[in-house]
Here is the input.
Amino acid sequence: MEAGRRFGIPLSGTMAHFFVQAHDDEAESFRHFARSRPDNVVLLLDTYDTEAAARKVVALAPELAAEGIPLRGVRLDSGDLGAHAVKVRAILDDGGLTAVKIFASGGLDEWALAGLRDKDAPIDGYGIGTGLTTSQDAPALDCAYKLQVYAGKPKRKLSEGKATWPGRKQVYRRYDEDGRPREDLLTLIDDRQEGTPLLNPVMRGGRCIAALPSLEESRAATLARLERLPPDLAALERTRSYPVVVSQPLKRLAEEATPHDRA
Here is the structure.
């Protein structure tokens, strides 16, 4: 909520289980929630019995409509989401609520989404939480500071499996005729190459030296880059590795920076 206030991030959401449980009657919790948020009514169905809750929504819809409150959707958060969605869709449609959307949540990740897609589950949207904000499949990011230049001289680490490339570097991205990334070239900072340089200074001497993009600009840039990804790199199953080429000048510097008396 604070991020929405401070940065203008669009906020949306549905009711919580505790809100339903705080009421003695589930239908009454739906009624109270709808009246408190009349412009974005999405009701949570699976606190008790999912299909029974869907029938309560159908019964409540005419009352809300008479008050000028449109019902936008319902949310499923547990159990077999695909099976529940089929049953709920049928209940809503039979009750004349064909325009009401079904949203699903509950520990979803890209694999769960693919499974629901393959089953043609009648789900209109998904709420992704933990699977988006954490790396559950690789929870630790192994990174460390490595010295590559000291006192103007290139330095190189030669530890087994952890050897580094010395010197100050730049990465150039090259694109195919469709404007999609083809390969990246790793080279020295003064070795100008074909392609788009990816490393641009933002901080220097502890001070920000670049204009920071707005939230809208960052969002648009991210979406544009995702659209330019080659299909095989955007696919759920990896079919190939993205090529990263090391330039000859960097290879020569690595040889020069390698101690000749190493074991």
About this structure: Residues 139 and 174 are 31 Å apart (CA to CA). The two ends are 58 Å apart (CA to CA).
